[in-house]
Amino acid sequence: MEAYNPPDFYNIDELLNEEQRMIQNSVRQFVTNEIIPHIEDWFVAGEFPKQLIPQIAELGLLGSTIKGYGCAGLDYTSYGLIMQELERGDSGLRSFVSVQGALCMYPIATFGTEDQKKKYLPKMATGEVIGCFGLTEPDFGSNPAGMRTNVKSDGDHWVLNGNKMWITNGGISQLAIVWAKSEQGKVIGLIVDRDLKGFTVRDIEKKYSLRASVTSELIFEDCRVPKKNQLQVEGFKGPFSCLNQARYGIGWGAIGAAQACYTEALEYAKHRVQFDKPIAGFQLVQAKLVWMFTEITKAQLLCWKLGKMKDAGKEIPQQISMAKMNNVSLALDIARTARDILGASGITHEYQCGRHMMNLESVNTYEGTEDIHRLILGEHITGIPAYK
Ligand code: TGC
Ligand code: FAD
Fold first, then answer.
1. What dihedral do alpha carbons 289, 295, 296, 298 form, nearest 10°?
2. Banded model confidence at residue 5, pLDDT cuts 50, 70, 90
3. Is 91's pLDDT higher than 90?
4. Mean pLDDT across the stretch 164-191?
5. Nearest-CA neighbor of 232 among 189, 286, 187?
6. What is the pLDDT, as a whole number, of residue 1?
7. Domain of residue 19, CATH code
8. 108 lines ligand 2 (CB under 6 A)
9. Do 249 and 205 share a domain, yes or no?
10. Do 216 and 99 share a domain, yes or no?
11. Measured from the CA of 387, which atom of ligand 2 is nearest?
12. Best probe residue, ligand 2, of 365, 370, 372, 388 (max atoms within 8 Å of C-beta)
C-alpha cells in the first residue's frame, strides 16, 4: 500500500517529539496495512474485526496513557495522535480503543482499589479482557441524571436492576463499567463481570452508522455484584471524568476522518474530467476544497494546544467540549462535502467518504451531542445553564 501523507499545512509535525512521531507512524502504518484494505467489507458485513485486538494491544494502544499495570504511560499528545490515525481508518476502530481505554481502564485506574487495578488492568492492556461503559439508558441519553438503573444493598453485594442502551463493545465485552443510583439517590460505579447471573446483552443490528463496531443493550435483572467491585467515587463526577477523557480523544479522532475525506476528494477532483477539464479546476470545487483544508488546519491547532494543556493538567472540561463539538461537526461537514465532490461515485464503497459520513453521524451524537456541548459552552460563558 502507498504511504499516506495527510494535510499538515501549519507543520504540526514539527511540534512533535521523536517519540510522538514514531508512535504516529506506527499507528499510521497499522491502519494503512491492516485496516484500509478490509474496512469497507467489514462495514458492509456489519463486523467488528475482533481478530485485530491482539495487534492493537501489541502496539500499546489500550489504556495507553495509564502508567504501570502493563500500560504504555504515554503523554496526551501521543494519545491524541493515536486516535487521529485510528479514525482515519474508521470511527468504529477508534471507538473500540476509546471505550476500552478512556471509559473502562481509566475509571479503574483512577477510582479503582489496588486489587481491582491488579486484577483488571493488565488483562485489559493485552486485550484479553474487553470492557464496555454503561451510562446511557433508553429514556435518558443527554440527561443521564434521570437514570433508572439502580442498586439495592444486600450484605456484601449490590443487587443491580436496569437497562443501558447504545453501549459500544457490549457484545464483545467481558466486563461492564455500570453507573447506577443507590437507594439514597447517589450515583455509584460498578465493575460488572459479564458472567454474572442476571446480566444479559442484546446487540443492536441494522445500523447504518458505525457498522464495524458493536453496539448493544445491557440488561440487569437482580444481578448480584460483589461490593468489592465498586469504584471509589460517588456522584456524576465519576462518569463525567471518564467522558472528559473520551471526548478529548474524539476531538483528535475526528481530524483523522476529515483528513481521509479531504485527501480522497482532492485526488478525485484532480482526475475527474467534466466540461473538458478536471473538476478541481472549477472555482466552486476549489472553494470547497480550500474550506476543508482550512478547517482541518484549525482543528489540528485546537487539538495540539489542548494536548499541551492536558499534559500540564491545566485543561478544563469546557475546552474539551469545544474540541469535540467543533472537530466532529466540521469532520461531518467535510465528509458530506467530499461525498458531494465525488458525485455518484461518493455513494459507493469504492470510496471511503460515504462510510466516514455515516460514522460521523454517530460520533456527533455520542459522548454528548453537538448541541449539548454548545450548551456546556453557553453555560461557561454566560454563567446561565440552559439545559432545561
Ligand atoms: P451537573 O449538575 O453540571 O454536574 C453534576 C456533577 O458532575 C460534575 N461534573 C463534571 N465532573 C467532571 N467532568 C465534567 N465534565 C463534569 N461535568 C459535571 C459537577 O461538578 C457535579 O459534581 P458535584 O460534585 O457538584 O455533584 O450535571 P448535569 O446533570 O446538569 O449535566 C449536564 C450535562 C448535560 C452537561 C451532562 O448531563 C452531559 O454531559 N450530558 C451528555 C451525556 C453524555 O455525554 N453521555 C455520553 C455517554 S457515553 C458515550 O456516549 C460513549 S460513546 C463511546 C464510543 O466512543 O464509542
Ligand atoms: P437525546 O438525548 O434524546 O437527544 C435527541 C436530540 O435532542 C439531540 O439532537 C439533542 O442534542 C437534543 N437535545 C437533548 N436535550 C437537549 C437540550 N437540553 N437542549 C437542546 N437540545 C437537546 N452511551 C453509553 O453510555 N455508552 C456507550 O458506549 C455508548 N456508545 C454509543 C454508540 C453509538 C453508535 C451511539 C449512537 C450512541 C452511544 N451511546 C453510548 C449513547 C450516546 O451517548 C447517546 O446517544 C447520546 O448521549 C444522546 O442521547 P440520545 O441518543 O438519547 O439523544
1. 150
2. confident
3. yes
4. 98
5. 189
6. 63
7. 1.10.540.10
8. no
9. no
10. no
11. 18
12. 365
